[in-house]
Amino acid sequence: MKIAVLPGDGIGTEIVAQAVKVLQALDLKFEMESGLVGGAAYEAHGHPLPESTLKLAKEADAILFGAVGDWKYDTLDRPLRPEQAILGLRKHLGLFANFRPAICYEQLVGASSLNPELIAGLDILIIRELTGDIYFGQPRGRRIAVDGHFPGAEEAFDTMRYSRPEIERIAHVAFQAARKRKAAGSEGRVTSVDKANVLETFQFWKDIVTEVGLQYPDIALDHMYVDNAAMQLVRAPKKFDVVVTGNMFGDILSDEASMLTGSIGMLPSASMNANNQGLFEPSHGSAPDIAGKNIANPLATILSAAMMLRFSLDQAKAADRIETAVKAVLAQGLRTTDIFSTGTTRVSTLEMGNAVVQALK
To answer: Fewest CB atoms less than 10 Å from the CB: which of 191, 209, 238, 249?
Structure first.
């Protein structure tokens, strides 16, 4: 099992170090090789995704990723900014399906800004299409407008587009995920989020998801406009089971859902291709304001490593062990700053990683 370890920038190096330590505590043999990505790669090689890192990622069975980005790179040309590394990996590896679970652990019900009765027992899965939509659509750029409200003025434009195969494959992923969750006790429902009342792209999306849904008669399907979905996520989040949506809407909704659980520092994610090769990373960013302070929460990255074991490396029992260890640590009352509350014990990044390793034993 070959794992490409790409810590990246900011707190990425700190949190990935803890996840690697947890993986090393398992009774498994991994070949782990590290590479530079993001701002760190730009500093060393002049590009956020150098050829050596891309080659490493392509040859690996799975990628453990930290985070990229720093304010000091905001003045770079867009192709050289750290964030382009993650977009490049998605494109070159065909990582089209992003899994973002939003789970509220029993011990953290009080950490959410929502009332406990709204989020106690929350367990939803947001599936975001990753390689299409307005993020990658062409044409895009800047020009002098020849029409619109201000002809002759400078304007910028991006193109939202989806093809039938792109929508079909992400829809199948969502329905199959709902079927697996139903077997484990969930409702067995897919909510497809769109803006079909305004956008032709998402009327097309809605039509095709509906067609695919006919192949899964055991799974319920409903459709919801994105503005309503954003509202319902904070009004009645437990009514959702599996949510599937496009790249831009998924980007926004998954971050919103992360805060239902109390902290984005608790949420892992997986980005998969058709061959089950995946990139596994915490849902949060590089947080340069706290980098180097040993206070970042490593649990999202550790849980991402568990997802890596389950989805790409066929090591479900090892994944279960890590997830159980995380629950045990939370039950002990250990908390990093982002999830700390009165009556619990504040610990550092390093101490939290050590505690998970100890719980594994």
So the answer is: 238
